[in-house]
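Internal tracking record. Fields below are filled automatically when a chain is submitted to the structure queue. Please do not edit lines marked as system-generated. If the sequence contains nonstandard residues, flag them in the REMARKS field before resubmitting.
Queue: standard
Priority: normal
Entity type: single polypeptide chain
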Amino acid sequence: MKRIAWGITGAGHFLSDCAELLTGFDYLDIFLSRAAEEVVYMYGLEAKLFNVGSLAPHTPESSARIYRESKMQVSAPIVARFSRGVYSVLLVAPATGNSVAKFVYGIADTLITNLFAQAGKSLVPIVVLPTDVSEEILSPGPKGGLVKVYPRQIDLENVEKLKGFRGVTVVTDMEELKACLQLLTR
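SYSTEM-GENERATED OUTPUT FOLLOWS
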């Protein structure tokens, strides 16, 4: 069975819901950007995220694995797994405006942007859940409560550009992400 590659960037918006969704998969590799790891701790999600897949019996081939970005992993050989057919899909959820901009302009200087580039070059389907999906967003704050966020016009434009990429599906909420994931992992 092919694995799912799930990239997480440094966004708090959608993060809790994504962490919850991750617990339902076994054949999963989770890739955390440096900023993602910081935000996971800010939102108190480390126990949930770092124990993904630990509730069910696993074999080494099926258990969820976590990869953290480091200086050694920005262009790590692990991204070659896409060309070897290890992954059925790359999900990047949540994706910050910074990551989306890098995707759109072909910048591959982080672990997540390298994953995106290699998945695209290997024709592996990519699903992206950007955080900047409307002109005004109510987002959970790290200490509780909701915070109003107003994405910049350039961020909204980059999301629109990303929608035109071959092999990339842009979803705008968790329901769309779940539906897309069900279709791609049947």
